[in-house]
Write a structure and sequence with these properties.
With about 675 residues, the chain is an alpha+beta fold. The protein has 5 domains: about 230 residues, Rhopdopsin 7-helix transmembrane proteins (Up-down Bundle); about 90 residues, 2-Layer Sandwich (Beta-Lactamase); about 100 residues, PAS domain (Beta-Lactamase, 2-Layer Sandwich); about 70 residues, Helix Hairpins; about 140 residues, 2-Layer Sandwich (Heat Shock Protein 90), CATH 3.30.565. The strands form 4 sheets. Strands 12, 14, 15, 16, 17 and 18 form a 6-stranded mixed sheet that branches. It is elongated, with a radius of gyration of 51 Å. It starts with 6 loop residues before the first helix and ends with a strand. Its EC number is 2.7.13.3. This is histidine kinase. It is an enzyme of class 2 (transferase).
């Protein structure tokens, strides 16, 4: 006997549809995960299936009834497809989520919608229909297409419900996830069961349309009571079982109640659910007893970092033990630590406020400090005052600019108070959790800088040498050509002698130029040199033009030096005294004491100052009784090219200075006691 339905029944069906479509809009607007889109389709399909049925209960026009029936059938196929798709995504069935398989399902759904909307034309699903005022209008004369349509919908719906059931079984005992999965499996199961019962005429009314009201209510509870889709274990097998970190869930009796594959491989034995944790992993005792919050465990060759956190619900309390295999990380840390601690470059880590938090051991060989001496200080405390502002600006630019790496070269303070040339680079790794600082690498470039300066000086002397040759040799070269032409024409021996004199002059100039070019190079090998002998040999090699030498140097006094280069010093000083005076002069060579005064003999000098424990002089002087050097030009006498002689190249005293400085000594020019020039060379 048909059941009579009222407007109240129709209103309840419309309300069920509105509830589900409201949930669909809420889910799609508040969740960005693509996995919830098929859930929205499932809820929209429910609305398309229930709302038209509510109108159909009060509608008597057959044409309107036909249109509503088409919408109802379309909603059913959309609902079944959305349910199955969401079940696949929710349970992580990735093999079915591939475009090929999923596309085939949606292609079938689209074909069924086309068949449904065109059925009044071809009648493949039904013969001509009559609609009555019963719920889910009885359609007479169903054809084969209709049963295939029912099979398609029921297969997809049953498949989705089965996947949810498997997830429910898998989530048992997992607290909130268990309650979520229970609601999820009941939501489609209730209306599905009601539909099956009505189809087989177990019930006289198909209550599935109201069952979908229960579906909407259960989904709402899952969303707002149990934070469904916030804590939803979508693809649990993929997320949990394939995660690299292991976990062991422990109940309040310290028994293992759950674990994943990573935990089993880390523990290195078969973990049994219900087994005491102290049997499976006894090393974790300090964590579970609250003695430690983190723990490093060695399991054979495997190193594991372990942490623990509490979990529980209203019925039980437990803990989750997280295990992370850090074997490779520890091996890499030891490898990089060995590299950093054994390289010659200094590696320093500083905070954003420039405080040093780490310094590699090589800081002691480069700057003389132990690592503990510099940790806690500002890195700018070791930068030369003239370079500090530039270093601070570069550091600030590194922290705030577009580049996270910079190069620099500053002077750094050595422990002994000296300044060392430092070169390196900085990398901003403050955002790196493992480093949390700016990493600075530093190397000592003092020797390299000195070599570069020496090369620069050598190149400068070479440039000067080439310039002088091209300029100063032009005049004697022109004279030589003229005298050669005259000698060729006249055959006069005097003309030939003039050519020889000019060539001798050019030879002397070239020799002085070569001496100048070589004078300033660094002296790497020295030997004890008797300065009295050097002075005597140099005087013999000098054209003295009637001048005399008085050598008052101690006979047994030697210095570490280069004999031949020291010859250049004395020869140039002697030649300077001879050629810059218009009469023969007396040249005196003697020893200097610590105060710069001369001493007459070794015994007298040894008693002069008790700081000199060896009895050796600290320097030598060369002076003459000529006209001397005007005070106005004394600051320039050692410069290259400076000369007051008509045929001089201006390199004699420059050579003297270069050789003296190459020995690590110093030289000054003063007035002599007899009014002439006095050069003092300090050798200590």
């Amino acid at each position: 006997m048909p059941v009579a339905f009222t407007s109240l029944h129709a209103a309840t069906l419309v309300s069920v549809g509105l509830l589900n479509i409201g949930l669909a809009v809420l889910v799609l607007r508040t969740r960005s995960d693509q996995d919830v889109r098929p859930l929205g389709g499932f809820l929209v399909g429910i609305s398309l299936w229930t709302i038209p049925q509510g109108f159909l209960l009060v509608e008597t026009d057959p044409a309107v009834g036909l249109a509503l029936s088409v919408v109802i059938n379309s909603g059913a196929v959309i609902m079944a497809t959305g349910l199955f798709h969401f079940a696949l995504a929710y349970t992580g069935r990735t093999e079915w989520l591939r475009p090929g398989r999923l596309g085939a399902i949606y292609l079938g759904t689209c074909l069924w919608i086309v068949v449904i909307w065109t059925d009044p034309i071809h009648n493949w699903m039904h013969q001509p229909m009559e609609y009555t005022e019963v719920l889910l209008p009885v359609v007479e004369y169903q054809k084969t297409g209709y049963w295939l349509y029912v099979f398609w919908n029921w297969s997809l719906s049953a498949g989705g419900i089965f996947l949810f059931f498997l997830e429910y079984v898998d989530a048992r005992g997992s607290g909130v996830y268990h309650r979520q999965s229970r609601l999820v499996v009941l939501a489609p199961l209730i209306p599905g069961a009601a539909n099956v019962l009505a189809f087989f005429e177990v019930t006289s009314v198909n209550y599935s349309v109201w069952g979908f009201g229960a579906t909407g209510i259960l989904i709402a509870i899952a969303l707002y009571r149990y934070r469904w889709l916030d804590l939803v274990p979508i693809a649990r097998d993929r997320v949990i079982d394939e995660m690299r970190d292991g976990y062991l869930v422990i109940d309040d009796d310290r028994r293992v109640v759950d674990y994943n594959a990573a935990a089993r491989s880390i523990v290195d034995e078969d973990v049994v659910v219900g087994e005491p944790i102290r049997t499976a992993l006894p090393e974790a005792g300090p964590l579970l007893d609250g003695e430690r919050t983190e723990l490093t465990i060695a399991r054979g060759a495997t190193v594991v970092d372990a942490t623990v956190s509490s979990v529980g619900d209203e019925r039980t309390e437990g803990a989750v033990l997280m295990l992370r295999d850090v074997t490779e990380q520890r091996r890499a840390e030891r490898r990089f630590q060995a590299l950093i601690e054994n390289v010659s470059d200094v590696v320093v880590v500083v905070t954003a406020d420039s405080e040093i938090t780490y310094a590699s051991p090589s800081v002691q060989s480069v700057l003389g400090y132990r690592p503990a001496d510099v940790v806690g200080t500002s890195v700018f405390d070791f930068v030369h005052g003239e370079d500090r502002e530039r270093a601070i600006n570069a550091f600030d630019e590194l922290r705030t600019g577009p580049d996270d790496e910079t190069r620099f070269e500053y002077r750094g303070r050595h422990r002994d108070g000296s300044w060392v040339g430092l070169e390196g680079g900085s990398v901003d790794l403050l955002d790196n959790d493992l480093v949390d600082g700016v990493v600075i690498s530093i190397r000592d470039v003092t020797e390299r800088n000195e070599r570069e300066r020496e090369l620069e000086r050598t190149n400068q002397r070479l440039d000067e040498f080439v310039g002088v040759i091209s300029h100063d040799l032009q005049n004697p070269l022109g004279l030589a050509k003229n005298y050669t032409r005259l000698a060729t024409q006249s055959g006069n021996p005097d003309d030939v002698g003039m050519v020889a004199d000019v060539l001798d002059r050019m030879e002397r100039m070239i020799q002085r130029f070569l001496t100048m070019a070589r004078a300033g190079t660094t002296i790497t090998e020295t030997e004890p040199v008797d300065l009295a002998t050097v002075a005597a040999d140099s005087w013999v090699a000098t054209a003295t033009q009637g001048s005399t030498l008085e050598c008052e140097l101690p006979a047994d006094w030697t210095v570490d030096g280069d004999y031949y280069r020291l010859r250049h010093v004395f020869e140039n000083l002697f030649r300077n005294a001879v050629v810059h005076n218009d009469r023969p002069v007396t040249v005196r060579v003697g020893a200097l004491d610590l105060e710069g005064s001369e001493t007459q003999n070794p015994g007298e000098f040894a008693d002069h100052d008790d700081r000199n424990t060896t009895g050796d002089p600290v320097g030598v002087f060369v002076e003459d009784d000529g006209v001397g050097i005007p005070e106005s030009i004394r600051p320039f006498v050692f410069e290259r090219g400076h000369t007051t002689s008509d045929d001089g190249a201006g390199f004699g005293l420059a050579i003297v200075r270069d050789v003296v400085e190459a020995h690590g000594w110093s030289i000054e020019v003063r007035n002599g006691p007899d009014g002439g020039a006095r050069f003092e060379i300090v050798t200590t």
